[in-house]
Write a structure and sequence with these properties.
heterodimer; A: two-stranded parallel ribbon; 4 helices; 4 strands; globular; B: two-stranded antiparallel ribbon; 15 helices
């Protein structure tokens, strides 16, 4: 997860885009260290000491991790549980709707023969 | 991107294994031999009983034997750190399936008895494949009101919604006289279908991604499998879903509406049912609350409810502060 998300956040800096985590690790100090260590560059809500049973994931009825929601600029849920390519396409679509035509391309892809 | 696609593949194929893994074969070791072995271990442990006579199998004895074997195994594993050595020990992990045949023999002494119910319930809850299915069928027939059927429905909800699994939910709901069993069976049926659509979608994504990949990309992604092999795996995964389920999955938005309708029906009929025999046991209504909230307010096309909380540094913020931006919400944990 991390490299893809890190790359998204980096590429879309300055765009009307945000990646918001809801972190379900019960030890806040430990997760803060991991955030530094693994360069998790986006902001997260903390789900509290109860970890996966914390209030946010309870209310949202999250039973599998990761669970992904993609919201448009109006805060409307438009995609769920899209990952990788599918997540990129979803974000492109929603940015397109507010006039930002962007093609997301990740760095790893750069040394590959381009087929488009 | 690469890592993610692999992640999906692992998730989905892992799921396939989980859902449709080959049922472990019934025990090969004759019971007497196994008992002798257990006794041997018991001696080595600390002198408990020097000369344990071999009593006839009962539900209680087999359960104790299994528990002891599990404890011994866990002890052995905790003492070894070397990975290769651990794998060797893993081979002898005491699997409930190894006890299924003896447990069934106990049950068959008198299927309608209390012990029959316990033994069948144990197999249904702990074993896999054929023994579990068989025990389930006998439970429905001889003990349709037993709580074990509710537990079985909960276990079943983690399987794929195959024709057989759907039929098992229906059998509980039809045959049981217990409102609790009926409510749990109907509820777990929706849970199973909801879990299933995640796997379905993941496989559909794999199929789509593979079709779009260049040969080089594919080679990196496929971990040695050919295109044909992967396509075959996707097909074989999808073919396990009965037509009725596939039709539901074809329209995810309508599917969620249908699940909401089912749950609201269950809530209206069985909301006051308690989940266990304990007086202070939660009602079904309290258990359904979050799930109904999800289907009502967290579906595609709905405005997301606000989240108010603190970030990892303790600073308060709200999801709604990000209005005007495209937002990906990622429920994650580093584990």
């Amino acid at each position: 997860m991390y490299p893809h998300e890190r790359s998204l956040v980096k590429q879309l800096a300055g765009e009307p885009f945000a990646l918001i985590g809801v972190n379900s690790d019960s030890d806040r100090e430990k997760i803060r260290e991991i955030v530094k260590e693994k360069e998790i560059t986006w902001r997260s809500f903390w789900n509290g000491e109860e970890g996966t049973r914390g209030p946010i994931s309870q209310k949202w009825n999250v039973r599998a991790w990761p669970t992904i929601y993609v919201l448009d600029a109006n805060g409307v849920i438009r995609f769920k549980n899209v990952r990788g390519d599918a997540m990129d396409r979803a974000i492109e679509t929603l940015l397109g709707e507010i006039g930002r035509e962007i093609t997301i391309k990740h760095e790893e892809a750069e040394d590959e023969p381009s087929d488009d | 991107m690469k890592m993610i696609a692999s992640g999906i593949t692992v998730f989905a194929f892992g799921w396939l294994v989980l859902g449709a893994g080959p049922s472990a074969s019934a025990q090969d070791t004759p019971p007497a031999e196994e008992e002798a072995q257990v006794q041997e271990e018991a001696k080595q442990d600390e002198a408990k009983q020097e000369e344990a006579p071999v009593p006839p199998d009962t539900f209680q004895l087999i359960v104790e034997e299994f528990q002891k074997a599990t404890a011994d195994f866990n002890k052995k594993m905790s003492e070894v750190e070397d990975a290769a050595e651990r794998r060797k020990i893993m081979v002898d992990r005491p699997m409930p399936d190894k006890y299924a045949e003896r447990m069934m023999a106990v049950a068959e002494k008198d299927l309608a008895s209390e012990e029959g119910r316990q033994a069948l319930g144990w197999i249904a809850a702990n074993c896999n494949g054929e023994p579990s299915t068989l025990a389930f069928e006998k439970l429905v027939e001889h003990h349709p009101d037993a709580n074990e059927l509710g537990s079985f429905a909960q276990k079943l909800s983690r399987s794929m919604p195959t024709g057989e699994v759907m039929a098992q939910f229906d059998a509980i709901a039809e045959k049981t006289g217990s409102d609790r069993n009926k409510a749990i069976a109907l509820w777990m049926r929706t849970t199973c279908l909801k879990n299933g659509i995640r796997g379905w979608t993941a496989y559909a994504d794999i199929a789509k991604n593979l079709a779009d990949m260049s040969d080089d990309e594919f080679a990196r992604e496929s971990r040695g499998r050919t295109r044909e092999q992967v396509e075959e795996q996707v097909k074989s995964f999808q073919s396990q879903f009965p037509e009725s389920v596939r039709e539901m999955y074809a329209d995810p938005v309508a599917f969620e509406a249908k699940m909401l309708e089912s749950l609201e029906e269950i809530l209206a009929k069985y909301g006051e049912v308690r989940m266990t025999d304990a007086e202070d046991s939660p009602t079904l209504a309290s258990r359904l609350e979050n799930e109904i909230f999800e289907l009502k307010y967290l579906t595609i096309g709905k405005e997301a409810p606000d989240i108010e909380g603190e970030d990892l540094d303790g600073t308060a913020f709200k999801l709604s502060e990000y209005r005007g931006k495209v937002v990906v919400i990622d429920f994650w944990g580093d584990w």
